[in-house]
Design brief:
Distance between the termini: 44 Å
Radius of gyration: 18 Å
Shape: globular
Oligomer: single chain
Strand order of the largest sheet: 5-7-6-10
Order of helices and strands: EEEEEHHHEEHEEE
Helix content: 10-25%
Largest sheet: 4 strands, antiparallel
Strand content: 25-35%
Number of strands: 10
Number of helices: 4
């Protein structure tokens, strides 16, 4: 039986504000992000944005510069955690989805009103937020499929371990804050 060889990857071009996209392909969108210990790439049928970030120490001036008036009640929580990565990843996933990126003033990006799915890892510590046009948190969660890449013992090779949803990654869980007014999880 013959095996079909997939078409080559479409050409990748940059949009007006620098967001990469496939040239001439309307129903395949992607976005990527990386931090010191993790890299993530998301593929979707609609425009998508993703951000992954290790802890961002709390900074009052930064908090004031990037928060909407409605988000400011979260100050004490971020201050006590000394970590703003949850807020940062949610904002960045939204602006990356739109294609405007950081040309959008972050204080205009309301993460309370947006449908963004955020996951948290304990070790290594990071938040990962995902936003896809037209999909709410429940739809994002139900469609989430993860393939984990890890180095193989053989040099220059990687192995994959596919998972359904969060799969067997016990360290990566939907973020459930102890302040329920922040809509992070379904």
């Amino acid at each position: 039986m013959a095996t079909a060889i997939p078409d080559p990857l479409p050409e990748i071009v940059l949009g007006r504000f620098g967001k990469p996209r496939f040239q001439g392909v309307r129903d395949r969108h992607f976005n990527w992000s990386h931090d010191a210990s993790i890299c993530v790439c998301v593929l979707a049928a609609t425009p998508v944005g993703v951000d992954v970030q290790s802890p961002v120490p709390y900074d009052d001036a930064l908090f004031e510069r990037i928060t909407t008036p409605g988000e400011r009640y979260l100050r004490d929580r971020f201050q006590s955690d000394d970590d703003m990565s949850l807020l940062w990843t949610r904002k960045e996933a939204i602006v990356k989805r739109t294609g405007r990126g950081l040309t959008t003033p972050l204080r205009e990006v309301d993460t309370l009103a947006s449908n963004v799915l955020t996951l948290a890892s304990v070790e290594p510590r990071y938040h990962l937020s995902l936003s896809a046009e037209g999909l709410d948190q429940a739809a994002l969660r139900s469609r989430l499929r993860i393939s984990w890449l890890q180095p193989s013992p053989t040099a220059h090779l990687w192995t994959t371990r596919d998972g359904d949803g969060l799969g067997d990654r016990s360290d990566l869980r939907p973020y459930r804050p102890n302040y329920p007014a922040y809509p992070i999880m379904v």
